[in-house]
Design goal:
The protein is mostly helical. It is built from 6 helices and 2 strands, in the order E-H-E-H-H-H-H-H. The protein folds into 2 domains: 53 residues, no CATH class; 108 residues, no CATH class. Helix 2 packs across helix 6.
Length: 170
Amino acid sequence: MAEEVGVRCPRCGFGQDTDGDGHCAWCHNRSDEEAAVMKSFSESPDAPDSISVPMRRKSGVELIAEERGRQITSEGWSESHDDTHTNGELARAGLSYLDTARKQILGASPEHAMLRSDFWPNEWGTSWWKPVDDPARQTAALPSHIVRNIVKGCSLLAAEIDRLQRKGTA
């Protein structure tokens, strides 16, 4: 799979940062030296305006870790914040996203699949319920709305595991 790019990656000079992590898919597993060589090539007068670069599909573990990092840095859900959820809210929220993904996999109508699950923590209200329901919102970095819901659910479960481990109950 290749991605045609036109916006230059700040690290290598060619790729496009499609997921906001500061580098393109080509750079993801490349050393600084490899990226520097590509950057120097991109700055030469003979460099093309764009190139096709091979896309490496991220593993599920990588996607979950990135989402957990986003929750911490972008949403501000710190360990101390997570530690206030002592009634399984993180696990219940994670199960809600997984239940939505399950319904989507089974072909449920969007209206049915997007219904807030009975698992959802009532004390969180509906404004935090944000499953992805639009296949048109797919990106090259994340090819499926179903995968996105699974990633969200698993990252919340990871937060619950971390909370329990900090508490010393796991």
